[in-house]
Amino acid sequence: MDKTNQPTTVKFASGEDIPLELHKVRVVQKLFLHPIERRLEAMRKAGFNTFQLHTPDVFLDMLTDSGTNAMSDNQIAAMLRADDAYAGSQSFARMQAAVSEVFGTEFVLPVHQGRAAENVISQAFIKKGDVIPMNYHFTTTKAHMELNGGKIFEIYTDEALKIKSAFPFKGNIDVAKLRGLIKEYGASRIPFVRLEASTNLIGGQPFSIANMREVRKVCDEHGIIVVLDASLIGENAYFIKQREAEFRNAQVKDILLTMCGLADLIYFSSRKVSSTRGGGICTRRRDLFLKVRDLVVLYAGFVTYGGMSVREIEAMAVGLYETTDETVISQSPSFIAYLVNALERRGIPVVTPPGALGCHIDCVGFLPHVPQREYPAGALAAALFIASGVRGMERGTISSVRDDKGDDVLADVELLRLAFPRRVFTLSQTQYTLDRLTWLHQNRDLVGGLKFVEEPAVLRFFMGRLEPIGDWPDRLVAKFRADFGDSL
Q: Is 162 annotated as catalytic?
């Protein structure tokens, strides 16, 4: 039996549904859980933006899974054999072989991370006035495409933005809307259709292969290429195996090859897909490879390193092979599902079904008294850090933009994302997060809104600074001390 296709579900005699770590911990990093007064001070210094917090102030860092996944022993061992030749490196050859086997492509170009790939692809394919259909945008993707004159159209299905849903593939594209866009704008103005595996901003929701086949069929009819963001493709493949009947008995590696075989051009952040740094662009088509190759050399580095350390290239190669192992890719979704289901049982609004990347809290449902223009997702992220030392990420209107009049473009959903990097957190840490979220929900009326005091023009959620509207952080600290005494 192929060990990569063994079942990963473990049932307990007690009937409890508990995620079981299918790995052992051999290297540890000390964490610090500071008193709530220090957490409030740290949040003030950070401008109530969790991106501006410093690691020594953070207990559990659930900001992102990008570059924060735990590498395996085999990945770390592979880094020691790196060939640091500027050109023709053996490390690149091993990475190229891994990409070919896992993604089924012939040509690959390394880049220093996913947004470097987005920049290159946008410059190579998009011209002013183009429209780019996709299942949902990602912040840096949208910025690169718009800077190059394109306009994105999110043609998701009716289920995509429903917070509570049983629909298994909320990342699907609405094919009727795709046909409508092609009819309205013409195929010549559509450089490609983009599919994001496990749509980040709407809860890490996957798409199905059945839907991808429909998209492929429409694109073939009109001579449009399909671009796949494969950053979270491993988890998307896992959900396909769990939720799409045709692939229930398929091996993950075959699901990955099927998905990638339906795309013309694939790019990825290896900070996610292979638990390393870096990224890549790959394709089976030489014409597409040549269209992006010279831009990689210009913006990233030579074609055999693309701005990456060769040590990371070695680790990436091993990590890509490990992405075909169900025990590797199932760990994060199983912990996410555990927290999502536990929160839902307690009446705390979360995105369902559980997706990839993290647990996503519905901040409009959690803080109904905080208007969107006062940034409820940012406020909840700040409040959770103050109450627990857990750093999450705002995925709402702060992550959006302003219109030509200077008004906020309100986000479709206001989410607090609590990321679960692969193989990083334990069950007790997850239960601690559950406990503090429960307490915060019970005291949600204490949490107020935020306002910008320093706002960058582009990607403001990274470097922007905010301040609370009113004294709600102080009142939250006072209630914590009344309830928890001298507890951290």
A: no
Is the distance from CB of 178 to CB of 216 less than 8 angstroms?
Answer: no
138 is a catalytic site residue: yes
How far is Cα of residue 306 from the mean position of the Cα atoms in its chain?
A: 22
- Nearest residue to 267 (alpha-carbon basis) of 245, 247, 295: 295
CB 131 within 8 A of CB 150: yes
Q: What three-state secondary structure class fits 151?
A: strand
Q: Is 432 annotated in the active site?
A: no
User: Given 115, 170, 271, 395, which residue is catalytic?
Assistant: 395
CA atoms within 13 A on the CB side of 201: 22
SS3 readout for 381-401: HHHHHHHHCEECEEECHHHCC
Instruction: Look up the pTM and report it.
Output: 0.93
Catalogue the E-assigned strands of 249-404. 265-269, 279-283, 358-362, 390-391, 393-395
**What is the C-alpha to C-alpha distance for residues 409 and 404, in angstroms, rounded to an integer?**
10
Through-space distance between the first and last CA atoms of the chain, rounded to whole angstroms = 48
- CA proximity to 108, closest of 340, 289, 338, 312: 289
Cis, peptide link before residue 353, omega less than 30° from 0: yes
Alpha carbon distance 10, 8 (integer Å): 6
DSSP-derived letter for residue 116 is H
How many Cα atoms sit within 13 Å of 339 on the Cβ side? 33
- Give the β-pairing of 192-196 and 225-229: parallel
Cα–Cα dist 214/196, whole Å = 15
Give catalytic status of residue 375 as yes or no.
no
CA distance 368 to 380: 11
What are 276-332's pLDDT values in tens digits? 999 999 999 999 999 999 999 999 999 999 999 999 999 999 999 999 999 999 999
Q: Is 11 a catalytic residue?
A: no
